[in-house]
Amino acid sequence: MVKVVVCGAAGGIGQPLSLLLKQSELISHLALYDIVNAAGVAADLSHINTASKVTGHVGKDSLAEALQGAHTVVIPAGVPRKPGMTRDDLFKVNAGIVRDLAEACAQYCPRAFILVISNPVNSTVPIVCEVLKKANVFDPKRVFGVTTLDVVRSSTFVHQIKPQFEPHVNRITVIGGHSGATIVPILSQIKQLSFSAEEIKALTQRIQFGGDEVVKAKDGAGSATLSMAYAGARFTNSLLEASVRGTRGLIESTYVHLAGNPGAESNLRSTGLEYFAQDVELGPEGVTNVQTLPNLSSEEQRLVQVAIGELKGNIAKGIGFVANGA
Ligand code: NAI
């Protein structure tokens, strides 16, 4: 029995993400939780002819029932950006939502894998980890910040200027975090193509701020939902392939707690950072091994330094929120 819970399932991301997860043959029970409309979304999806059971759970009183027995909890609950907002502007609202959901996970499904989509991911992942630490149920191998959309965008944007680069086949490592300057795509990894310095600069800028293109185009109606659902389903499916089916060698970039994760500490020991996005190999217990950072160009090294400075503030904000009970 593999139960996957989506918290925020009635939202712009939650609905298409749940639709994609309904197609997974590795999921036997899809539990959809939201403070509104989850029952309708569940009834709708339950008519799709795949074997998984779908249940809807609306409101705080049904959260325990939604989470009990969960193998994996995916969290896209919270408010999205409007034009002119940064992801950090969402902190005030989303920090409390994510903290409360993490507390419920600690109580009702302490061994579940937790996949955090709610922004600002750079701070919401530390919030989840601090809550789990407080409850004495923290396992760094089991909490993931979902940064897959940055990876997906990287392949797409490279393909758009170099059509011979197959976006579906070629994966680009993205390290750092998940907001603006903290997103560092490692374009120097692409050995089969050559790029001018201008191309690298423009691509990096577009990948870092790709989310803004969608926020602007939606003009007040939110941020990326469909591409995010695709990216969230891809990460969830990779984790299920590795943890349920036992497939080896599956690697995804994701934002994780460094201490306690195999391979992670040596990577960035000198920086004093507690969290960082990088390639990890997934396995039965979540993170099997954090991959060694690839060789970086001098420009990528500079971008990492900028990212580290910003990440430290984002991480401290998340940790402080749980410590001070704000
Ligand atoms: P949305 O507003 O369409 O949906 C959010 C859903 O969360 C709503 O259905 C709402 O009722 C629900 N919700 C609010 N409080 C809740 C609670 N306490 N418990 C359960 N559900 C709750 O927003 P959208 O577009 O789906 O975005 C969700 C989040 O994902 C935002 O924080 C957004 O910034 C983030 N996001 C993350 C990305 C990433 O790459 N990690 C990319 C795009 C968006």
From TrEMBL:
<feature type="domain" description="Lactate/malate dehydrogenase N-terminal">
    <location>
        <begin position="2"/>
        <end position="145"/>
    </location>
</feature>
<dbReference type="GO" id="GO:0006099">
    <property type="term" value="P:tricarboxylic acid cycle"/>
</dbReference>
<feature type="binding site">
    <location>
        <position position="228"/>
    </location>
    <ligand>
        <name>NAD(+)</name>
    </ligand>
</feature>
<dbReference type="InterPro" id="IPR001557">
    <property type="entry name" value="L-lactate/malate_DH"/>
</dbReference>
<feature type="binding site">
    <location>
        <position position="87"/>
    </location>
    <ligand>
        <name>substrate</name>
    </ligand>
</feature>
<comment type="similarity">
    <text>Belongs to the LDH/MDH superfamily. MDH type 1 family.</text>
</comment>
<keyword id="KW-0520">NAD</keyword>
<dbReference type="GO" id="GO:0006108">
    <property type="term" value="P:malate metabolic process"/>
</dbReference>
<keyword id="KW-0816">Tricarboxylic acid cycle</keyword>
<dbReference type="InterPro" id="IPR001252">
    <property type="entry name" value="Malate_DH_AS"/>
</dbReference>
<comment type="subunit">
    <text>Homodimer.</text>
</comment>
<dbReference type="InterPro" id="IPR036291">
    <property type="entry name" value="NAD(P)-bd_dom_sf"/>
</dbReference>
<keyword id="KW-0560">Oxidoreductase</keyword>
<feature type="binding site">
    <location>
        <begin position="8"/>
        <end position="14"/>
    </location>
    <ligand>
        <name>NAD(+)</name>
    </ligand>
</feature>
<dbReference type="InterPro" id="IPR015955">
    <property type="entry name" value="Lactate_DH/Glyco_Ohase_4_C"/>
</dbReference>
<feature type="binding site">
    <location>
        <position position="81"/>
    </location>
    <ligand>
        <name>substrate</name>
    </ligand>
</feature>
<dbReference type="InterPro" id="IPR010097">
    <property type="entry name" value="Malate_DH_type1"/>
</dbReference>
<protein>
    <recommendedName>
        <fullName>Malate dehydrogenase</fullName>
        <ecNumber>1.1.1.37</ecNumber>
    </recommendedName>
</protein>
<dbReference type="InterPro" id="IPR022383">
    <property type="entry name" value="Lactate/malate_DH_C"/>
</dbReference>
<dbReference type="InterPro" id="IPR001236">
    <property type="entry name" value="Lactate/malate_DH_N"/>
</dbReference>
<dbReference type="Pfam" id="PF00056">
    <property type="entry name" value="Ldh_1_N"/>
</dbReference>
<feature type="binding site">
    <location>
        <position position="119"/>
    </location>
    <ligand>
        <name>substrate</name>
    </ligand>
</feature>
<feature type="active site" description="Proton acceptor">
    <location>
        <position position="178"/>
    </location>
</feature>
<dbReference type="Pfam" id="PF02866">
    <property type="entry name" value="Ldh_1_C"/>
</dbReference>
<feature type="binding site">
    <location>
        <position position="94"/>
    </location>
    <ligand>
        <name>NAD(+)</name>
    </ligand>
</feature>
<feature type="binding site">
    <location>
        <position position="153"/>
    </location>
    <ligand>
        <name>substrate</name>
    </ligand>
</feature>
<feature type="domain" description="Lactate/malate dehydrogenase C-terminal">
    <location>
        <begin position="147"/>
        <end position="321"/>
    </location>
</feature>
<dbReference type="GO" id="GO:0030060">
    <property type="term" value="F:L-malate dehydrogenase (NAD+) activity"/>
</dbReference>
<feature type="binding site">
    <location>
        <position position="34"/>
    </location>
    <ligand>
        <name>NAD(+)</name>
    </ligand>
</feature>
<dbReference type="GO" id="GO:0005737">
    <property type="term" value="C:cytoplasm"/>
</dbReference>
<feature type="binding site">
    <location>
        <begin position="117"/>
        <end position="119"/>
    </location>
    <ligand>
        <name>NAD(+)</name>
    </ligand>
</feature>
